Amino acid sequence: MSTKLIAIHSMLKVLSWIRSYYLFFYYTAALDPIKKKLVPSRGFITTAGLVMIFPSALILFGTHHFFPFINDTMREELFTFRGSVNQMALIYVGISIALTYFVCCFKIRFEGIAPRLQQIPFFAQRSVPKCLLLMLINFVITIICMNLLYK
Question: Is the pLDDT of residue 1 over 70?
Fold first, then answer.
């Protein structure tokens, strides 16, 4: 095998593991603690709101760095819902929902997540600290990338 094919294969394995980590969070967050049953919409909303919001900020401001499009009118208040809501907040939410769909739902059924996670020893057992670690990693990567972009 050539070195390029080996590098591509290794990169795909890493990306698959990263997707499995997001799927782990999605699947873990889908468990309703009161009813003790899985609710996919609960996992989707939790993943979009707590985890994917950081990569969506990175995408939004990374795009803005190279193609400036954010202006003052996008920061003006549109309405109030538990705080000020502007166009930027709506764009964050839209990107976050799209990312969550493409990472956690695209070409994989909810029933197929558990067998996939069981194949990887790190994800075989549910754990809240592992979920918190994913949120922390996303936050740190976003902060580092923003600092590199806007130095």
Answer: no
